[in-house]
């Protein structure tokens, strides 16, 4: 049974930083592209960042480029999202995702989803 468990969310002031973690189990993580989506109530889920299985390729939403960094430690089956210079508009529930393939902004193409972790950025 595949599980993706996010942690590291919380409340932070604008300009601050948070690091999200996603612990994966039940799959051979090297075979999977991993990523992060976010969702605000009343809006569609939005692709934030993705990373290939070997970590040689990354992708980012334009509005987070230069502020967020995705990384992975396959030995620990964990993916990270370092978020710096946070803005109130980054407030959302952040979801960890995995798929057998490269990252994509298409929600239905991801095979597995975590339950999400809340990130709230105050102004």
Outline type: globular
Percent strand equals: over 45%
- According to DSSP, the number of beta strands is 11
Radius of gyration: 13 Å
| Separation, N- and C-terminal Cα atoms | 40 Å
Structural class: mainly beta
Report low-confidence residues grouped into runs of 5 or more.
none
Rounded mean pLDDT score: 96
Q: How many helical stretches?
A: 0
Q: Can you give the helix content as a percent range?
A: under 10%
Order of helices and strands: EEEEEEEEEEE
Q: Please outline the major beta sheet.
A: 7 strands, mixed
Which structural traits does this protein have?
123 residues; mainly beta; 4-stranded antiparallel sheet; 11 strands; 50% strand; globular
Molecular structure report:
This protein is mostly beta strands and 123 residues long. 0% of the residues lie in helices and 50% in strands. It is built from no helices and 11 strands. The strands form 2 sheets. Strands 2, 4, 5, 6, 9, 10 and 11 form a 7-stranded mixed beta sheet that branches. The chain has a 4-stranded antiparallel beta sheet with strand order 1-3-8-7, with no helix packed on it. Strand 5 (46-51) and strand 6 (58-60) form a beta hairpin. The mean pLDDT is 96.
